Amino acid sequence: MERKGILLLSGGFDSPVAGHLMSRQGLLLVAAHFSLEPITDDAAATKARTLCGILGLDRLYVLRVGTAFAEVANLTNRRFYFVLTKRLMVRLADAIADREGADVLVTGENLGQVSSQTLASLQAIDAAARRPILRPLIGFDKQEIVDRAKAIGTYEVSKGPEICDLLGPPRPSTHARLDQILAEEAKLEPDRLVASCLTGVTPERLKGNGAAEPISDARRTNA
How far apart, in Å, are the Cα atoms of 168 and each of 2, 46, 72, 201, 211? Predict the structure, then answer.
């Protein structure tokens, strides 16, 4: 039986390489991209569509999370912004996995690169998930990831400035404890944020050139 995963796909180097590695292991992937619209434009979502074309992924969800992420930034201790927003993305990916019948989540996280990728932070992120989170790049260094991105053809699309830290703090926490995260999350309404981000979201069927068309409810049922 073929297993299915939800790939949390950004426009950067890491997650496309992670997706490539898991696809090579036989995991069927559906991509979920978290766009900071309406705070930013849709440039990152356009990159995600192109990356899906290169990776051979024909199904993509674009979730516009800018308003929800701004709420996280404004209502909680901003030192914990990255862990809190990662937990929200995991919840959203789990909801997409429910729709798709997926078994696992896949991310491009690798240990120690940024504040949300320390052992303590990853543990706090995992606690929000209802499915296993696979991290095939966990022991890679950045140069290894860049080299693989060049080898699989995603480098030119992924290079350039990242905007995922647009609302983040100048000095994020690097060793957030779960009790601290839960205390900050209590200032939010995670279920409401998830529901608002999912409102009106339907999967896009991607063509070989990265062009997309929405899948209607009837077509999705038969997909």
Answer: 38, 23, 10, 25, 31
